[in-house]
Amino acid sequence: MTSKAQIIKDEIEYKGAIFDIHAQTIHIPEANMTIHRQVMHTSNSVTIALINQDSKILITKEFRSAIGDFTWALPAGRVDPNEDANIAAQRELAEETGLLVNLEDFTQVDAVNLSEGVMNEKSYIFIVQLTDKNHSIVKQKLDSDEYIAKSKWVTIDEAYRDSHSAATHIALNHLFALSSID
């Protein structure tokens, strides 16, 4: 029987606006070993695959400081403290695109750890089918430090080709799986 690892020590080494770095000492009883790790604690995220009536997917081009470049990806964002992931997905989609879609049209298809070896972030993946009647146009409300250079409607293949985001590719894989069921 496997025994659970025990965190012996957990100290915040760095406290930032988006993430904290914890220095941890962990004992793993079944291996009779103690290890030391640095772990990034951050909020969870949402990624939204929005599909229009022409079966095109909306991708956005946004600056990503970790890689120092603009990248194409599906609309995505942070889940606020104590916020439901569905509400966060609806909010983020409206903020980034100006499309306020009815909450009941958001289908969560996955929840994945993006890099469980170094951080605790879980990304909730949603698929939303846009119709004539399930959305309204609202004012785009980007965060004060957020800039979306452009957005475009593309095929699934073009979205794969243009994006390199893990969460985007996971969402697109779900779309492929769903389209092969029909």
> From the alpha-carbon coordinates, what is the Rg to the nearest angstrom?
19 Å
The number of helical runs is 3
Q: Main beta sheet: strand number and arrangement?
A: 4 strands, mixed
Q: How far apart are the termini?
A: 43 Å
Q: State which percent range the strand residues make up.
A: over 45%
Mean pLDDT: 90
Instruction: Give a count of the beta strands, DSSP E runs of length 2 or more.
Output: 12
- H/E topology pattern: EEEEEEEHEEEEEHH
Helix fraction? 10-25%
**Structural class from helices and strands?**
alpha+beta
Shape: elongated
Runs in which pLDDT lies below 50 for 5 or more consecutive residues are none
Strand order of the biggest β-sheet: 7-4-10-9
Descriptive terms for the model:
alpha+beta, 12 strands, elongated
Structure overview:
This protein has 182 residues and is an alpha+beta fold. The protein has 3 helices and 12 strands, in the order E-E-E-E-E-E-E-H-E-E-E-E-E-H-H. The chain has helices spanning 85-97, 156-162, 166-181, and strands at residues 6-15, 19-28, 33-42, 45-51, 57-64, 69-73, 76-78, 99-101, 106-113, 122-129, 135-137, 148-154. The strands form 4 sheets. A 4-stranded mixed β-sheet has the order 7-4-10-9, sandwiched between helices. A hairpin with a 3-residue loop joins strand 1 and strand 2 (19-28).
Secondary-structure topology with pairs:
Elements: E1 6-15, E2 19-28, E3 33-42, E4 45-51, E5 57-64, E6 69-73, E7 76-78, H1 85-97, E8 99-101, E9 106-113, E10 122-129, E11 135-137, E12 148-154, H2 156-162, H3 166-181
Parallel strand pairs: 4-10
Antiparallel strand pairs: 1-2, 2-3, 4-7, 5-6, 5-12, 8-11, 9-10
